[in-house]
Design a protein that fits this description.
Layout lengths: L3 E7 L6 H9 L8 E7 L6 H12 L3 E5 L6 H10 L5 E6 L3 E2 L4 H11 L3 E14 L2 E7 L7 E3 L1 H6 L8 E4 L8 H5 L3 H10 L3 E14 L11 H21 L5 H21 L3 H8 L10 H17 L1
Parallel strand pairs: 1-2, 1-4, 2-3, 6-10
Antiparallel strand pairs: 4-9, 5-10, 6-7, 6-9, 8-10
Helix pairs in contact: 8-9, 9-10, 10-11
Length: 308
């Protein structure tokens, strides 16, 4: 029986994939049986060649799934996960890597010894790549003590880094349609897991999260794109609350309040006055603390009167 499946998701990661593989094979397994299930989403670079080389070197432990056409990150992940046979699954993106050689055994031992938990997620260093080089932005999470994370917390914020988590396999057998139509697939998956048990956020750093020009998180740059993403955030919260039988109404209210404040900021910054006006009905001046932000709110109210 496989103890841990590494669900390795990759697309056009030729510059980074070697580090991901090497960090797996440096793990001190202490008898753990693992498999590496690789979802390769029809890359246009040499990603597939790299996978084949590791398959030739390490044999059946590397189990590649080569797509004949690109199906997108969400469906690639769901299908690759369905092929994982381990008791637990550890996610690793092809552009991230692990730095703690005990990462897999530590997380496996925690979940084995604490059956009330369905997931554990460790911390990571964030390396951001620019044209001029790399910047280490420090830890992705600044907490110094372990913390239990529940569904209501995930509505407001996702503190987990996907490549640093391990979870019980086969808890989620079917993915609802809402999962494929939502954005932020990591958060939504963690929310579904959290319905089945506790999730631990562990402050110990076990890996590196990379953001670079080719990564999804680096492609949202303009004010207009940011605003669109923020509206998606509101829609996601409302739709997932309905999926969970409207149990998180309070969290949705908080999400909407926080997000409309951001939309107002970026709308005024980008001179999208109609979008700024649309935020007014969802906010009051008491929602703002800084004088400069209150002034922005009053400006939007004035603009609304002009439109009327």
């Amino acid at each position: 029986m496989i103890d841990v499946s590494i669900c390795l998701i990759t697309y056009n990661h030729e510059r980074y994939l070697h580090d991901a593989f090497e960090s797996i094979f440096k793990q001190k397994l202490n008898g753990l049986k693992i498999e590496i299930v690789v979802g390769e989403d029809c890359s246009t670079d040499s990603t597939r060649t790299i996978i084949i080389k590791y398959r030739e070197k390490y044999g059946d432990i590397v189990k590649p799934i080569f797509r004949e056409k690109n199906i997108g990150v969400v469906r690639n992940y769901v299908d690759t996960l369905s092929k994982c046979s381990g008791k637990y699954v550890a996610i690793l993106s092809g552009d991230d890597y692990w730095i703690d050689e005990n990462k897999l055994f530590y997380q496996f031992s925690f979940l084995e010894n604490n059956p009330e938990y369905v997931m554990i997620g460790n911390n990571a260093f964030h390396h951001k790549y620019y044209k001029k080089g790399l910047i280490n932005l420090g830890k992705t999470n600044q907490r110094e003590i372990a913390l239990d994370i529940h569904t209501k917390d995930l509505f407001l914020h996702n503190p987990f880094t996907a490549s640093q988590i391990m979870f019980k396999n086969k808890i989620i057998k079917d993915f609802p349609e809402i999962y494929f139509s939502s954005t932020g697939e990591d958060r939504q998956f963690f929310m579904m897991l959290s319905q089945h048990g506790k999730c631990l956020l562990d402050p110990h750093v076990t890996g590196v999260y990379r953001s670079h020009p080719e990564s999804i998180t680096s492609k949202v740059k303009s004010n207009s794109q940011i605003i669109d993403r923020l509206y998606e955030r509101i829609n996601n919260a409302e739709n997932w609350n309905k999926y969970f039988d409207n149990k998180y109404e309070d969290q949705v209210k908080i999400v909407k309040k926080q997000t409309y404040k951001k939309i107002l900021h970026y709308s005024l910054k980008g001179f999208y006055f109609k979008k700024a006006v649309n935020c007014i009905d969802h906010l009051t001046i008491s929602d703002f603390e800084r004088k400069s932000v209150k002034l922005s709110f009053l400006m939007a109210k004035f603009i609304k009167k002009l439109f009327n």
